[in-house]
Amino acid sequence: MNENGNKVLARTPIKIIAPTITLKSAPQAIAGEPVAIEWTGPDNKGDYITIVPKATEDGKYGQYAYTNSGSPVSVKACETAGPAEIRYMNEDGDIVLARIPITVNSPE
Known about the structure:
There is one protein chain. By secondary structure, the protein is mainly β. It has one domain: Immunoglobulin-like (Sandwich), CATH 2.60.40.1930. About 0% of the residues lie in helices and about 45% in strands. It is built from no helices and 8 strands. The strands form 2 sheets. The protein has a 5-stranded mixed sheet with strand order 2-8-7-4-5, with no helix packed on it. Strands 1-3-6 form a 3-stranded antiparallel sheet, with no helix packed on it. The radius of gyration is 18 Å and the shape is elongated. The protein starts with about 20 loop residues before the first strand and ends with a strand.
């Protein structure tokens, strides 16, 4: 765009492609215990992986590990037993980019 009149001087089409993200973990964990999580993804600055109860609204997080520490990462499971999610999140806005289910069990 030019400064005088805000007219478009040139255009070029672009295609925005969503990143491919995978998460892999054991299907169950013990509350408060570390969970090994394998992941692939964009590994942008500030990306992190967290485990939260399934009912937790998007944008919220629990214990986490930054993806820049490599794969797998170790994240402590939430303290609440029941259905939960492992989430790959972007620090810029705390956006959930991927999620998989996990069941968190009470310690015996």
